[in-house]
Design a protein that fits this description.
Blueprint (H helix, E strand, L loop, with lengths): L2 H16 L11 H14 L11 E5 L7 H7 L4 E6 L2 H14 L4 E5 L2 H7 L4 E7 L4 H8 L3 E11 L3 H8 L12 E4 L8 E6 L14 H4 L8
Parallel strand pairs: 1-2, 1-4, 2-3, 4-5
Antiparallel strand pairs: 5-7, 6-7
Helix pairs in contact: 1-2, 1-3
Amino acid sequence: MNLDINETLRQYAELLAGCVSVRLTGTRDADEIFNTHIQDGLESLKFLPQNSNAQVIDVGSGGGLPGIVWAVCRPDLNIILLDSIGKKCRASQEIIEKLNLNNIKVICSRSEDFAKLNRERFDLACARAVADAGVTAELLSPLVKVQGSLLTFKGAKLEQELEQVNHKWRCLGLSEPEINYYGGDNSSKSIVIWRKISKCPKIFPRKPGDASNKFWWTLKF
Protein backbone atom coordinates (compact mmCIF):
# COMPACT_ATOMS: atom_id res chain seq x y z
CA MET A 1 0.00 0.00 0.00
CA ASN A 2 1.20 3.49 -0.83
CA LEU A 3 2.61 5.17 2.32
CA ASP A 4 0.48 8.29 1.87
CA ILE A 5 -2.65 6.16 1.50
CA ASN A 6 -1.76 4.12 4.56
CA GLU A 7 -1.18 7.28 6.59
CA THR A 8 -4.52 8.74 5.50
CA LEU A 9 -6.36 5.53 6.36
CA ARG A 10 -4.69 5.46 9.78
CA GLN A 11 -5.83 9.02 10.31
CA TYR A 12 -9.34 7.98 9.26
CA ALA A 13 -9.32 5.20 11.86
CA GLU A 14 -8.30 7.71 14.53
CA LEU A 15 -11.10 10.07 13.51
CA LEU A 16 -13.68 7.27 13.68
CA ALA A 17 -12.38 6.21 17.08
CA GLY A 18 -12.43 9.74 18.40
CA CYS A 19 -15.87 10.77 17.18
CA VAL A 20 -17.92 11.82 20.23
CA SER A 21 -21.07 13.17 18.55
CA VAL A 22 -22.29 9.73 17.45
CA ARG A 23 -21.03 6.14 17.62
CA LEU A 24 -19.89 5.22 14.10
CA THR A 25 -18.45 1.74 14.74
CA GLY A 26 -18.82 -0.98 17.33
CA THR A 27 -15.43 -0.13 18.80
CA ARG A 28 -13.51 3.04 19.63
CA ASP A 29 -10.12 1.36 19.28
CA ALA A 30 -8.33 2.81 16.25
CA ASP A 31 -6.19 -0.27 15.61
CA GLU A 32 -9.24 -2.55 15.69
CA ILE A 33 -11.10 -0.21 13.35
CA PHE A 34 -8.18 -0.30 10.93
CA ASN A 35 -7.67 -4.08 11.11
CA THR A 36 -11.35 -4.95 10.69
CA HIS A 37 -13.55 -2.26 9.16
CA ILE A 38 -10.97 -0.50 7.03
CA GLN A 39 -9.44 -3.79 5.97
CA ASP A 40 -12.86 -4.88 4.69
CA GLY A 41 -12.86 -1.83 2.46
CA LEU A 42 -9.39 -2.64 1.18
CA GLU A 43 -10.44 -6.22 0.38
CA SER A 44 -13.23 -4.88 -1.82
CA LEU A 45 -11.10 -2.50 -3.91
CA LYS A 46 -10.67 -5.03 -6.71
CA PHE A 47 -14.43 -5.09 -7.31
CA LEU A 48 -14.72 -1.35 -7.97
CA PRO A 49 -15.29 -0.04 -11.51
CA GLN A 50 -12.04 0.27 -13.41
CA ASN A 51 -13.05 3.31 -15.43
CA SER A 52 -12.17 6.76 -14.13
CA ASN A 53 -15.06 9.04 -13.13
CA ALA A 54 -17.30 6.06 -12.40
CA GLN A 55 -20.26 6.84 -10.14
CA VAL A 56 -20.30 4.87 -6.86
CA ILE A 57 -22.74 5.04 -3.95
CA ASP A 58 -22.35 3.65 -0.41
CA VAL A 59 -25.84 3.17 1.07
CA GLY A 60 -26.30 3.28 4.83
CA SER A 61 -22.71 4.43 5.04
CA GLY A 62 -22.71 5.45 8.70
CA GLY A 63 -19.17 6.69 9.30
CA GLY A 64 -18.16 6.17 5.67
CA LEU A 65 -17.25 2.49 5.58
CA PRO A 66 -16.28 1.48 2.96
CA GLY A 67 -16.95 4.63 0.91
CA ILE A 68 -14.25 6.79 2.51
CA VAL A 69 -11.71 3.97 2.18
CA TRP A 70 -12.54 3.79 -1.52
CA ALA A 71 -12.28 7.57 -1.91
CA VAL A 72 -8.80 7.55 -0.38
CA CYS A 73 -7.57 4.67 -2.52
CA ARG A 74 -9.38 5.61 -5.76
CA PRO A 75 -9.37 9.39 -6.15
CA ASP A 76 -10.55 8.94 -9.76
CA LEU A 77 -14.01 7.74 -8.61
CA ASN A 78 -17.01 9.92 -7.78
CA ILE A 79 -18.46 8.60 -4.52
CA ILE A 80 -21.63 9.39 -2.59
CA LEU A 81 -22.16 8.44 1.05
CA LEU A 82 -25.89 8.01 1.65
CA ASP A 83 -27.39 7.76 5.12
CA SER A 84 -30.71 8.74 6.65
CA ILE A 85 -29.34 9.68 10.10
CA GLY A 86 -28.38 13.31 10.32
CA LYS A 87 -25.78 12.92 13.09
CA LYS A 88 -23.91 10.29 11.09
CA CYS A 89 -24.01 12.41 7.95
CA ARG A 90 -22.60 15.40 9.78
CA ALA A 91 -19.86 13.30 11.36
CA SER A 92 -18.92 11.83 7.97
CA GLN A 93 -18.79 15.30 6.43
CA GLU A 94 -16.42 16.48 9.17
CA ILE A 95 -14.17 13.45 8.58
CA ILE A 96 -14.11 14.06 4.82
CA GLU A 97 -13.09 17.67 5.36
CA LYS A 98 -10.33 16.70 7.80
CA LEU A 99 -8.98 14.16 5.31
CA ASN A 100 -9.13 16.73 2.48
CA LEU A 101 -11.06 14.41 0.17
CA ASN A 102 -12.64 16.07 -2.86
CA ASN A 103 -14.07 13.07 -4.73
CA ILE A 104 -16.78 12.22 -2.21
CA LYS A 105 -19.90 13.88 -0.83
CA VAL A 106 -22.50 13.08 1.82
CA ILE A 107 -26.26 13.02 1.20
CA CYS A 108 -28.77 12.58 4.01
CA SER A 109 -31.77 10.64 2.68
CA ARG A 110 -33.58 7.33 2.78
CA SER A 111 -32.27 5.15 -0.03
CA GLU A 112 -35.78 4.58 -1.41
CA ASP A 113 -36.41 8.33 -1.73
CA PHE A 114 -33.00 8.98 -3.24
CA ALA A 115 -33.40 6.14 -5.77
CA LYS A 116 -36.64 7.64 -7.12
CA LEU A 117 -34.72 10.75 -8.16
CA ASN A 118 -31.51 8.97 -9.22
CA ARG A 119 -32.76 5.82 -10.86
CA GLU A 120 -30.14 3.54 -12.43
CA ARG A 121 -27.49 6.24 -12.31
CA PHE A 122 -24.59 4.45 -10.62
CA ASP A 123 -21.90 2.07 -11.85
CA LEU A 124 -21.74 0.42 -8.43
CA ALA A 125 -23.87 0.54 -5.29
CA CYS A 126 -22.74 -0.88 -1.97
CA ALA A 127 -24.30 -1.52 1.41
CA ARG A 128 -22.40 -2.83 4.43
CA ALA A 129 -24.28 -4.27 7.42
CA VAL A 130 -27.59 -2.73 6.31
CA ALA A 131 -29.87 -5.77 5.91
CA ASP A 132 -30.11 -9.38 4.75
CA ALA A 133 -28.83 -10.08 1.25
CA GLY A 134 -32.28 -10.13 -0.37
CA VAL A 135 -33.37 -6.85 1.19
CA THR A 136 -30.03 -5.25 0.36
CA ALA A 137 -30.42 -6.26 -3.28
CA GLU A 138 -33.84 -4.59 -3.45
CA LEU A 139 -32.49 -1.35 -1.99
CA LEU A 140 -29.48 -1.24 -4.33
CA SER A 141 -30.84 -2.48 -7.66
CA PRO A 142 -32.89 0.65 -8.52
CA LEU A 143 -29.73 2.74 -8.13
CA VAL A 144 -27.50 0.75 -10.50
CA LYS A 145 -27.33 1.08 -14.27
CA VAL A 146 -27.48 -1.99 -16.50
CA GLN A 147 -24.01 -3.59 -16.68
CA GLY A 148 -23.19 -2.09 -13.28
CA SER A 149 -22.68 -3.99 -10.02
CA LEU A 150 -24.10 -4.35 -6.51
CA LEU A 151 -21.80 -5.15 -3.61
CA THR A 152 -22.36 -6.16 -0.01
CA PHE A 153 -20.34 -7.65 2.85
CA LYS A 154 -21.62 -10.80 4.54
CA GLY A 155 -20.78 -13.28 7.28
CA ALA A 156 -21.87 -16.66 8.57
CA LYS A 157 -25.59 -16.29 7.75
CA LEU A 158 -25.06 -15.69 4.03
CA GLU A 159 -26.14 -19.14 2.82
CA GLN A 160 -29.41 -18.89 4.74
CA GLU A 161 -30.05 -15.40 3.40
CA LEU A 162 -29.51 -16.51 -0.20
CA GLU A 163 -31.59 -19.67 0.13
CA GLN A 164 -34.73 -17.79 1.10
CA VAL A 165 -34.64 -15.83 -2.17
CA ASN A 166 -34.71 -19.13 -4.11
CA HIS A 167 -32.71 -17.90 -7.14
CA LYS A 168 -35.23 -15.18 -8.05
CA TRP A 169 -32.61 -12.48 -8.57
CA ARG A 170 -33.63 -11.87 -12.18
CA CYS A 171 -36.85 -10.36 -10.83
CA LEU A 172 -34.68 -7.41 -9.74
CA GLY A 173 -32.69 -7.39 -12.99
CA LEU A 174 -29.76 -9.13 -11.33
CA SER A 175 -27.46 -12.07 -12.00
CA GLU A 176 -26.99 -14.85 -9.51
CA PRO A 177 -24.71 -13.64 -6.70
CA GLU A 178 -20.95 -14.15 -6.92
CA ILE A 179 -19.48 -14.97 -3.50
CA ASN A 180 -15.88 -14.02 -2.74
CA TYR A 181 -14.55 -15.27 0.60
CA TYR A 182 -11.67 -13.58 2.38
CA GLY A 183 -9.95 -13.43 5.75
CA GLY A 184 -8.38 -16.90 5.86
CA ASP A 185 -9.50 -20.51 6.18
CA ASN A 186 -11.48 -20.01 9.38
CA SER A 187 -13.21 -16.83 8.27
CA SER A 188 -16.86 -16.62 7.21
CA LYS A 189 -16.40 -13.15 5.73
CA SER A 190 -17.40 -12.67 2.13
CA ILE A 191 -18.00 -9.97 -0.45
CA VAL A 192 -21.11 -10.66 -2.53
CA ILE A 193 -21.42 -9.23 -6.04
CA TRP A 194 -24.45 -9.09 -8.31
CA ARG A 195 -24.26 -7.91 -11.92
CA LYS A 196 -27.08 -5.71 -13.21
CA ILE A 197 -28.22 -7.56 -16.34
CA SER A 198 -31.53 -5.81 -17.05
CA LYS A 199 -33.55 -2.85 -15.86
CA CYS A 200 -35.06 -2.99 -12.39
CA PRO A 201 -38.88 -3.26 -12.47
CA LYS A 202 -40.65 0.05 -11.94
CA ILE A 203 -42.31 -1.22 -8.75
CA PHE A 204 -38.93 -0.58 -7.09
CA PRO A 205 -38.02 1.34 -5.05
CA ARG A 206 -41.05 0.79 -2.84
CA LYS A 207 -42.04 2.91 0.15
CA PRO A 208 -39.47 3.13 2.96
CA GLY A 209 -39.77 0.08 5.20
CA ASP A 210 -41.52 -2.16 2.67
CA ALA A 211 -38.31 -3.97 1.71
CA SER A 212 -37.93 -5.36 5.22
CA ASN A 213 -41.63 -6.00 5.85
CA LYS A 214 -42.89 -7.44 2.54
CA PHE A 215 -40.10 -9.45 0.96
CA TRP A 216 -39.94 -8.92 -2.80
CA TRP A 217 -39.33 -12.61 -3.53
CA THR A 218 -42.75 -13.47 -2.06
CA LEU A 219 -44.63 -10.91 -4.21
CA LYS A 220 -46.26 -11.27 -7.62
CA PHE A 221 -45.31 -8.43 -9.94
